[in-house]
Amino acid sequence: MNIEVFPSPYTVNTLVVPVNNSSNDVFIVDPAVNIELENKNPLAVILTHGHFDHVMALKSFHKKYPDVPILIHELDAKYIGKNSLEAQSRILNCCEAEEFERLVDNLPNATGFLKDGDILFEDWKVLHTPGHSQGSICLLNEKEKILISGDTLFYGTYGRTDFYDSNPTDMGKSLRRLYALDSDITVYPGHDHYAFPLIFAGESR
Predict the structure, then answer these.
(1) What is the tally of helices (H) and strands (E) in the chain?
(2) Which of 51, 85, 87, 175 sits most deeply, having the most CB atoms within 10 A of its CB?
(3) Which fold has domain 4-200?
C-alpha cells in the first residue's frame, strides 16, 4: 500500500491513504499542511486527535473540499468547530505557539464521530487510544499490517502526557494495547519518522 507522507513545518505527518490499490479514492489523516490531490478523490478527513498542529490545514482543505466528511473521536471534538480556539488556546499556550491561532480559530465542525471498533473503508479499524488526549485514536489495517498511530506512539517513545486533557495512566494502557499487536506491523506516526516496524516502538514493548 502506497501511503503518501507530507511533513509539515511543525514536523506533523499528513497522510494520504489509498482506500484500495485499484482506484484513486483516498482518505486524509491529520491535515497539517496544504497538499495537492492530483487525480485523487478524497472520501474523508480523519483526525487522530484535535491538537492544533494536526489540524492547521483543516480550514483550507474544507474550503476546497466542502463535501468531504470530517471524522474525529467525540472526546476531541472540542478542538474543532466554531468554538475551536477556546480549547486550542490551552494547547497553544503550553507549546508557546500562539502564532498559529488564526489557523485553528472557527474550524469546520465534525460531520461524524469515531469510536473504538469502528471499521472504515472495509479494512481500517479504529482503536481508541487515550492518553495524549482524551479522544486520541489509531487506525489499524490488519490485512496490510499497517498502524497509523497519531501522537500515541512514536519511534522509541510516545506522545506528551502533560497537557490539560492528557492522562499518563490512560497512555500506559493504550501503549500496552498497541504493543500487543503483531511486531511486524509498520507504524506511520504523527511526527518525525515516516514509518517504522512496531518492534522498534520502544523498550517497554
Answers:
(1) 3, 14
(2) 51
(3) Metallo-beta-lactamase; Chain A (3.60.15)
Q: What pLDDT, in 10s, does the model give residues 61-72?
A: 999 999 999 999
Q: What is the pLDDT, as a whole number, of residue 22? A: 67
Closest CA to 48 of 120, 106, 98: 120
pLDDT tens-digit map of 5-41: 999 988 999 999 999 876 799 999 999 999 999 899 9
Q: What is the pTM of this model?
A: 0.93
Helix (H) or strand (E) holding 58: helix 58-64
Give the pLDDT score at 104.
85
58: cell is 483543516
